[in-house]
Amino acid sequence: MYFPGGKIEPGETMEAALIREVKEELQLEFKPENIIYVGTVVGQAYPQHDEQTELNGFKVNHAIDWSRVSINAEITDIDWVHIDDVDRIAPAVQQWIDTYER
């Protein structure tokens, strides 16, 4: 399991990249003023275990109408995963959860 996301384009802010990637991957839109930066971790990439990845995490204060969410070809599934279900969570995501959500 991984969060929606992607690379920050040259000249793009983290917030603009978040808005763009979530729209591309989930067809969700929200405003920059609803974004709260939480923090960044550098951790083990998945599935490239010999590489590192940087996760910039945000919380978005915006109600989601889940019936309108539509995934693109990059996403295989949307699922709720318990925070302790570590076998289903990519290592860097687990590191982010341990750092900012516990």
From TrEMBL:
Pfam families: NUDIX (PF00293). Keywords: DNA damage, DNA repair, DNA replication, Hydrolase, Magnesium, Metal-binding, Mutator protein. Its EC number is 3.6.1.55. GO terms for molecular function: 8-oxo-7,8-dihydrodeoxyguanosine triphosphate pyrophosphatase activity; 8-oxo-7,8-dihydroguanosine triphosphate pyrophosphatase activity; 8-oxo-dGDP phosphatase activity; 8-oxo-GDP phosphatase activity; metal ion binding. It catalyses: 8-oxo-dGTP + H2O = 8-oxo-dGMP + diphosphate + H(+). InterPro entries: MutT-like, Nudix_hydrolase, NUDIX_hydrolase-like_dom_sf, NUDIX_hydrolase_dom. Belongs to the Nudix hydrolase family. PANTHER family: 8-OXO-DGTP DIPHOSPHATASE, NUDIX HYDROLASE FAMILY PROTEIN. This is 8-oxo-dGTP diphosphatase. It comes from Staphylococcus schleiferi.
